[in-house]
């Protein structure tokens, strides 16, 4: 490929501010991916029948607000 360079070569001239923005964006994306993994794990747990069942909406809402 003509003109191909490693990303690290492209980043070497970045200012410290741009590097900080890049790191912040990277951390945000990684956090989103971890949240998605946790959601997938929860869905798999529910599909396996390991979830809590509630008898009513009120019971569910009460459980959701127990930590408040």
Please tell me about this protein's structure.
- This protein has one domain.
- Helix content is 66%, strand content 0%.
- The chain is built from 3 helices and no strands.
- It has helices spanning 7-11, 16-47, 57-64.
- The chain starts with 6 loop residues before the first helix and ends with a helix.
- The mean pLDDT is 90.
- Residues 1-22 are annotated as: Disordered.
- This is RelB/DinJ family addiction module antitoxin.
Count of the separate structural domains:
1
Indicate the mean pLDDT: 90
Q: Which of globular, elongated, flat, extended, rod-shaped describes the shape?
A: elongated
Largest sheet: none
| Helix content, binned percent | 55-70%
Kindly provide the radius of gyration, computed on alpha-carbon positions and rounded to a whole number of angstroms: 22 Å
Counted by DSSP, the helix tally is 3
- Order of H and E elements: HHH
**How many distinct beta strands?**
0
Query: Which strand-content bin applies to the residues?
Result: under 5%
Distance between the termini: 57 Å
Structural class: mainly alpha
**Low-confidence spans: pLDDT under 50, at least 5 residues?**
none
């Amino acid at each position: 490929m003509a003109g191909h360079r490693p990303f690290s070569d492209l980043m070497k001239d970045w200012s410290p501010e741009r590097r900080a923005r890049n790191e912040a964006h990277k951390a945000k994306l990684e956090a989103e991916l971890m949240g998605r993994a946790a959601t997938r794990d929860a869905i798999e747990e529910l599909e396996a029948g390991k979830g809590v069942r509630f008898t009513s909406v009120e019971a569910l809402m009460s459980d959701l607000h127990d930590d408040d």
